Automatic annotation (TrEMBL), chain A:
InterPro entries: DUF3492. Gene3D superfamilies: Glycogen Phosphorylase B. Residues 583-607 are annotated as: Disordered. This is D-inositol 3-phosphate glycosyltransferase. One of its GO terms (molecular function) is glycosyltransferase activity. Residues 37-320 form the DUF3492 domain. It holds the Pfam family DUF3492. It comes from Streptomyces cyaneochromogenes.
From TrEMBL, chain B:
Keywords: Membrane, Transmembrane, Transmembrane helix. The chain crosses the membrane at residues 150-171, 177-195, 216-234, 254-273, 294-317, 323-341, 348-369, 389-408. It comes from the Bacteria. This is Integral membrane protein. The lineage of its organism: Bacteria, Bacillati, Actinomycetota, Actinomycetes, Kitasatosporales. Residues 1-74 are annotated as: Disordered. It comes from Streptomyces cyaneochromogenes.
């Protein structure tokens, strides 16, 4: 690990920089390919072992070996940092991390002018927050809302510039001046009513939260050797992770790509239910404004499903910027089961997932009771994932379901001399009968999903990859995932669920047809390959629209005149021409391209 | 899709019947809105029809006929079911997020004649009755609790110091020197332990003022005797560890200061608790500042009172001359410095303690430097002070000035709300 000291006068939040063992590779050049240097920004995710979005980031980085990745990671807790990283592929040329969970005051005390700058920017920021949420609905006139959004952005960038020029932002954000500015904004005429109610503890809580949320402003990443040197920033989630991307866009004109599998604003609403109303109102306004600003500045936004897309549209994302990129699943695990001819027990229904109340297993059991009336031979396997029931609530729910199953269905045996068994069995993956997830799906003819609440139903995609027909409730993104390849019933409707199950149990041909269609759909939409290919395309699209404006240096470190031709500054067309040149010229390297043709081994200097 | 022939499509129920038991209630409340279909049994038939025969997109046909909202008010029922959410919500999006978490989708919202969950949430938000009287709901902040560990630890320096003083009185000669050295070390360690936790613990682990504090306490022990001896041409011998002799020990102030660790911790605890209460009770920063100022001064006075009582006690018990002014000012200085450090203001205490310690050191140094030939004028100011008020004047003036500065500083900084903020909010 190479902890080179920051070369800047101002010491900000400590950020460590590491090169993997292989050192920086010179970029490999592929015929006809373009090499893009991507700054992947993740908060509490990749490359930490316990990260949230670790898996898809890892697949993305590994899948795009032809590009260069610089990883900028914000860690969420000390334990996360202690657990270490996942092994990084060679295309990761640099990792810089910064802890968000601790920010030491860098000891810089602002002078009078810096204090005034801070007071202006911070006052403006909190004034916008107190004026109300970003999404006031259609009643608010368009330009007024745009002005407010502008004010928020200017205040944010003002603070960032202050942090860049002077440092000491952490101390200033914690200071009494910040709390006073917040109080003034809350008491100002025109503040929303919840903010006007704010008491001193609320003000302190909001100030502390803002200090934490704005910590990325104090990072030393926004230099020409940091995020300024990448071709595009890819923020792996919204909110705090998008903040470095926003600043890189502001300081260095780096285009920003935002991927949100779950909308940060919505997560905030669901998480912060205990806080007093004033705190929630102000923080919701902050997240709303930040989301709106991010959506406005991002070149492209990729929601993970149409639910996230709707929220983004609602928060002000331009529809033209939105490209839904479904999360990718590893299809290989399910290939064997999916391609095998139907061999499952034709009377078995399977439910796979984590046992928790939102999955509404009770409804499933009632539905199964109805199924048994029609099809006495039917069996139900409830398979819990190895993560097990979540917490004491999940354990209690599992116990409740088992008791209910025992009540509804007495044990039964085939003959008078055999040992009986319950038609509903509760199992876990990893047992002798069901060693893997694929076997769980393979063990039944129909996969059932009975949730009342669901985000993106990964279990359903797995079932589809296993070529199993599914019956699911109409919640979350289920319909979007299923398309036409399964049956969908309303939630909390056991009878409808039972009807659908019976219909499928009685019709093996239809089952097979739907299962094949489901697998085809899943392979088309939900594989890692499609995910990676979609991002590859999006990267190229973004860089082709963003001409480089950097000075290319020669080996001696002098600026190379005419290294980037004037045409490179014109957007459009240029990539096509390059492609043609390459095609004609054979394996020759193109000299320069708007998509920074990094074939040049020359280092880059400041603009 | 078309290539797959008669591929089934996911379909909504085609019948206008209820989707679930709740919608059934609403539909039952307005029987004239659906002419055909009879409640839940229609679902069974309708479902069969939709699942087995939905071969073409039947969105238009399959939607239930929009129910006129004449009899019942489904949104009202929905609001009643989610009234907590509605009352709590600070904007429509919060209701939308909460509804979605309860399984409401756009298709559900369509039954309430809304395009999506967002517009449904907007209606709900707009219809929530907002009375002028709001529940004065903010729960009081958690206040720090007095705990046995730091309570006992704050008694430790006093106990150790008392033991050391007793040992000094019981021993003679070389063993007294050893007792004094061991006692000083033990008191220092006990003090360190007492300040490591509880209300006097500093926010960061580094303790930059330890040397200066030790110097000030050492001066309280030895300084007056040395000053007096130096003024009269001494000292001729090293201190013997007794209150009489040419360079006497003044143990009573030090013992009183060590014992005052416990009241100091109590005062700091009281300040923390009361300040948190005032914090949750006050509406404005100015209001908080004005209400905390008397509290701070009261606590300061309380500590001085306790220190005076302890000093009287130790002076009587050890039968030493009373040394009120210098001890009280030193106690005040140390308390204020510690309080400021505890609340995160480390700069001013370090500065003032340095100034005080160097003032005392300078006074001693000038007396000795005056013995050099031609430098007799150096001792004049100190000598004049000693002649007028006695040797106690030097530490009293130094500590008093320092304490006054810190008191003024504390009334400005410790009355800020941000000084009493804690990081324990979960949101």
């Amino acid at each position: 690990m190479d902890n080179r000291p920051s070369r800047h006068r101002v010491v900000r939040i400590r950020s460590s920089r590491c090169e993997p063992p292989g050192e920086r590779r010179l970029p490999l050049w592929e015929i006809g390919g373009v090499l893009v240097r991507i700054g992947l920004i993740a908060e509490g995710g990749y490359p930490y072992v316990s990260g949230d979005a670790r898996l898809w980031c890892d697949r993305l980085v590994r899948g795009l070996g032809q590009h260069d990745f610089d990883i900028y990671a914000l860690s969420r807790s000390e334990s996360q940092e202690a657990e270490g990283w996942v092994p990084l592929p060679p295309q990761v040329s640099r990792v810089r991390t910064a802890p968000l969970w601790m920010a030491e005051d860098d000891g810089v005390v602002h002078g009078r002018r810096a204090r005034r700058r801070f007071a202006e920017s911070y006052g403006e920021l909190v004034a916008v927050l107190c004026a109300g949420g970003a999404m006031d609905g259609p009643g608010v006139p368009e330009d007024a809302s745009a002005t407010e959004a502008d004010r928020f952005g200017n205040a944010l960038y003002g603070l960032a510039e202050l942090a860049r020029d002077e440092g000491g932002l952490v101390g200033a954000l914690r200071s009494e001046a910040a709390v006073r500015a917040l109080e003034r904004a809350c008491r100002a005429p025109g503040a929303q009513s919840a903010a006007r109610e704010a008491r001193v503890p609320d003000l302190l809580a909001v100030a502390a939260y803002l200090e934490r949320a704005l910590r990325p402003l104090s990072l030393d990443w926004y230099e020409d050797d940091g995020l300024g040197s990448v071709d595009l920033c890819h923020a792996a989630s919204g909110g705090t992770a998008a903040l470095p991307g926003l600043l890189a866009h502001h300081f260095c004109d780096v285009p920003l790509l935002l991927t949100e599998y779950g909308v940060r604003l919505r997560t905030h609403y669901l998480a912060a239910t205990e806080a007093p109303p004033a705190v929630r109102a102000l923080l919701a306004a902050f997240h709303g404004r930040l989301a709106a600003e991010t959506y406005a500045r991002a070149t492209l936004i990729t929601p993970g499903n149409s639910h996230a897309r709707r929220w983004q549209e609602r928060c002000g994302a331009d529809r033209e910027k939105l490209r839904t990129v479904y999360p990718g699943m590893d299809a290989a695990r399910f290939a064997e089961v999916g391609e095998a001819p139907e061999c499952a027990d034709p009377d078995t229904l399977v439910w796979v997932g984590r046992v928790e109340p939102a999955k509404d297993l009770v409804s499933l059991l009632h539905a199964f009771a109805e199924v048994r009336k029609e099809e006495p031979k039917a069996r139900l396997r409830v398979v819990g994932t190895p993560a097990g029931p979540s917490g004491p609530e999940g354990v209690a729910y599992l116990g409740h379901c088992k008791a209910l199953a025992a009540q509804l269905f007495p044990d039964e045996a085939e003959g008078p001399h055999t040992v009986g068994d319950n038609p509903v069995s509760f199992e876990e993956i990893g047992g002798p009968e069901i060693p893997t997830l694929a076997d769980a799906y393979a063990s039944g003819a129909v996969t059932v999903l009975s949730s009342v609440v669901e985000g993106f139903p990964i279990g359903l995609v797995e079932a589809m990859l296993c070529a199993r027909v599914t019956v699911s409730t109409d919640v979350g993104a289920v319909v979007e995932v299923i398309g036409g390849t399964g049956l969908v019933v309303p939630p909390r409707n056991p009878r409808a669920l039972a009807e659908a199950c019976v219909a499928l149990l009685r019709d093996p041909e239809r089952r097979e047809r739907l299962g094949a269609a489901a697998r085809a759909r899943a392979l088309e939409l939900f594989t890692v390959e499609q995910n990676v290919a979609a991002f590859h395309g999006i990267y190229l699209e973004i860089v082709s629209r963003t001409p480089v404006r950097r000075v290319v240096l020669d080996e001696a470190g002098e600026p190379l005149p005419f290294a980037v031709p004037a045409e490179a500054h014109l957007p459009g067309r240029w990539t096509e021409r390059t492609a043609r040149l390459v095609a004609r010229g054979g394996p020759d390297r193109p000299t320069a391209a708007p998509v920074r043709a990094t074939a040049l081994p020359a280092p880059e200097g400041a603009r | 899709m078309s290539g797959l022939g008669g591929l089934d499509r996911a379909g909504a129920p085609t019948s206008p019947g209820a989707w679930d038991e709740r919608s059934e209630e609403w539909l039952a409340a307005q029987p004239h809105t659906h002419a055909h279909g009879d409640g839940a049994s229609a679902v069974a038939d309708g479902a069969e029809e939709s699942f087995l025969a939905a071969k073409e997109p039947t969105a238009a046909r399959s939607r239930p006929a929009p129910a006129r909202r004449t009899g019942g008010d489904p949104v009202k029922a929905l609001m009643h079911r989610h009234r907590d959410l509605c009352e709590r919500a600070v904007d429509p999006l919060e209701i939308a997020a909460g509804l979605e978490a309860h399984g409401v989708t756009d298709r559900t919202a369509a039954r309430f004649l809304h395009r999506d969950v967002f517009s449904l949430a907007e209606e709900m938000y707009a219809r929530v009755p907002r009375d002028a009287e709001k529940p004065a709901g903010a729960p009081p902040l958690t206040t720090p609790r007095a705990r046995a560990d730091w309570l006992l630890l704050t008694l430790l320096p006093g106990a150790v110091c008392a033991a050391a003083v007793t040992a000094l009185h019981l021993t003679h000669g070389r063993s007294r020197l050893i007792a004094a050295a061991v006692g000083a070390l033990a008191v220092a360690l006990a003090l360190r332990a007492a300040l490591a936790r509880g209300p006097l613990a500093a926010t960061d682990r580094t303790n930059p003022t330890a040397t200066r504090t030790s110097w000030l306490i050492a001066y309280a022990l030895l300084g007056d005797g040395l000053l007096r001896a130096a003024a009269t041409g001494g000292p001729d011998t090293l201190p013997t560890g007794t209150a009489d002799g040419s360079w006497p020990f003044t143990t009573a102030p030090v013992l009183a200061l060590a014992l005052s660790c416990a009241p100091a911790a109590w005062c700091a605890h009281l300040l923390a608790v009361r300040a948190r209460r005032k914090l949750s009770a006050s509406r404005g920063l100015q209001e908080f500042a004005t209400s905390v100022k008397p509290l701070l001064l009261g606590i300061f006075a309380l500590h001085l009172g306790a220190l005076t009582a302890l000093l009287t006690l130790t002076t009587t018990a050890l039968d030493e001359p009373a040394a009120y002014p210098q001890t009280l000012t030193l106690g005040a200085l140390l308390l204020l410095a510690r309080l400021l450090t505890t609340h995160g203001f480390t700069h001013a205490p370090a500065l003032v303690l340095t100034a005080t310690a160097s003032a005392e050191a300078t006074a001693l140094a000038t007396l000795f430097a005056a013995r050099l030939p031609g430098c007799a004028w150096l001792a004049t100011p100190v000598q004049a002070l000693i002649d007028t008020w006695g040797p106690a004047a030097i530490p009293t003036i130094a500590c008093g000035a320092g304490a006054l500065t810190l008191l003024l500083h504390a009334t400005r900084t410790l009355t800020r709300a941000s000084a009493h903020a804690t990081q324990d909010q979960p949101w």
